Amino acid sequence: MTAQKKGLALTVSKGFTLIELLVVIGILAVLLAIVLIAINPARQFAQANNTKRSSDVSAILNAIGQYSADNRGNLTALSLTTGPATGASELSSAGTNICTFLIPRYLAELPVDPLTNTGTAIGTCSGEYSTNYRIVQSTTDNRITVQAPAAELGATISITR
To answer: How far apart (Å, rounded) are the C-alpha atoms in residues 55 and 103?
Structure first.
């Protein structure tokens, strides 16, 4: 389409110029960067893992509490490590092995830390396993502490009952 104005031919083109396209792409890139910073998927995954750890620690303590109630407070069969919280031993087949006492009566499966090599809960107590959770019984007041040492984002996950 051409138009005549004082002897000059003007052409009207349909579409966007390269500059306009680059400006729009730049604006979209800035908005995308802002959204990714606000959402921060790595932080969201770490928070989800910490929430699972907290739930797992609570479930283990609840199961031990139920076992204790059924055995009139006698926990000697569990062979828990005693001492300060810093001396906690790992809940594993090589450390404190309480799997056979809790599974399947008090827990359907023994939970494991989300970042362990298998990541699946222990449903049977045969073979070697590691939960990456730690447990200790206090020598002064017999309270039990379960810890999640692999907590992310600088969190400390430890529950004592």
So the answer is: 17
